[in-house]
């Protein structure tokens, strides 16, 4: 999802009565002291009922029907994803079904509900500013993993691995494969030999991969870049990249889950 384009699209929406644009920012953060008992369910119920009662009193039957249709969709979405919630849920919806934006995020929001002519994107814009599109590059000698994030959640993951026979970096899709050079017992000597070879060629091999990472950052519009790995390797790679590096972390997290990796930089 290109959030910049999505925000611009939402900003163009304008609907007059009996149609309206529904906007919901719902705090579902289990770490929030105000959410310990799943209070988001009460906030959701009260927020939706408030508009329903207002429209019932207003007497516009068609507008009420439009809102109730969206209310059902919102309730169904929350019930379907109840066990997958993170810190927040943001929804934009229109009765004509031209807009249905429903996403769960790892960033906090202030709970708000709107039923107006326009989509209320202020919080979404601020979140995009606070949690921009970021590339997290994790390094462990001949293996590199890139976690692309936006609004605190992973949106893409890439793997590169050095082919020791051809000395070329190859991109893999899906979970990265076990490296043939990693071993134990009888293979420990082979691993030690590889490490010595890698250290002798690290500068040259990182110089080869750096342009690929720069291109990925440019093509995917990364606003921030973080490098995670041993300080010697991250500094070496940073020196070969043209893109500025915004943060370094001296830690081995190559095999960590994407959500855990993202938490380390937020």
Describe the 3D structure.
The protein is an alpha+beta fold and 266 residues long. The chain has 2 domains: 128 residues, Translation, Eukaryotic Peptide Chain Release Factor Subunit 1, Chain A (2-Layer Sandwich), CATH 3.30.960.10; 132 residues, Nucleotidyltransferase, domain 5. Helix content is 40%, strand content 24%. The protein contains 7 helices and 10 strands. It has a 6-stranded mixed sheet with strand order 8-7-6-5-9-10. It has a 4-stranded antiparallel sheet with strand order 3-2-1-4, covered by helices on one side. The longest helix is centred in the last third of the chain and has 32 residues. The protein is elongated. About 2% of the residues have low confidence.
Characteristic terms for this protein:
266 residues; alpha+beta; Translation, Eukaryotic Peptide Chain Release Factor Subunit 1, Chain A; Nucleotidyltransferase, domain 5; 2 domains; six-stranded mixed sheet; 7 helices; elongated
Overall average residue pLDDT: 90
Beta content comes to 15-25%
What is the rounded distance between the termini?
20 Å
Radius of gyration, Cα only, in angstroms?
Answer: 24 Å
Largest sheet: 6 strands, mixed
CATH-defined architecture of the largest domain: 2-Layer Sandwich
- Which fold name is given in CATH as the topology of the largest domain? Nucleotidyltransferase, domain 5
């Amino acid at each position: 999802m290109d959030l910049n384009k999505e925000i611009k699209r939402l900003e163009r929406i304008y609907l007059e009565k009996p149609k309206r644009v529904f906007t919901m920012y719902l705090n579902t953060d289990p770490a929030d002291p105000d959410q310990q008992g799943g209070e988001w369910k009460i906030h959701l119920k009260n927020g939706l009922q408030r508009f329903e009662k207002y429209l019932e009193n207003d007497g516009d039957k068609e507008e009420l029907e439009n809102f109730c249709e969206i209310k059902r969709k919102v309730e169904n979405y929350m019930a379907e994803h109840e066990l997958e919630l993170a810190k927040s849920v943001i929804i934009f919806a229109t009765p004509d079904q031209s807009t249905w934006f429903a996403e769960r995020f790892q960033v906090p929001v202030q709970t708000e509900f709107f039923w107006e002519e326009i989509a209320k994107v202020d919080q979404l814009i601020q979140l995009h500013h606070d949690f921009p599109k970021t590339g997290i590059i994790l390094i462990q000698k001949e293996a590199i993993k890139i976690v692309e994030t936006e609004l605190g959640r992973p949106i893409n993951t890439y793997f590169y691995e050095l082919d020791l026979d051809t000395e070329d970096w190859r991109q893999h899709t899906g979970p990265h494969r076990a490296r043939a050079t990693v071993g134990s017992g009888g293979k420990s000597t082979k691993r030690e030999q590889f490490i010595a070879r890698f250290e002798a060629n690290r500068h040259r091999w990182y110089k080869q991969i750096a342009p690929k990472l720069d291109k990925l950052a440019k093509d995917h519009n990364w606003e921030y870049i973080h490098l995670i790995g041993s300080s010697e390797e991250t500094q070496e790679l940073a020196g070969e990249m043209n893109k500025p590096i915004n943060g370094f972390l001296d830690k081995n997290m190559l095999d960590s889950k994407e959500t855990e990796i993202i938490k380390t930089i937020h």
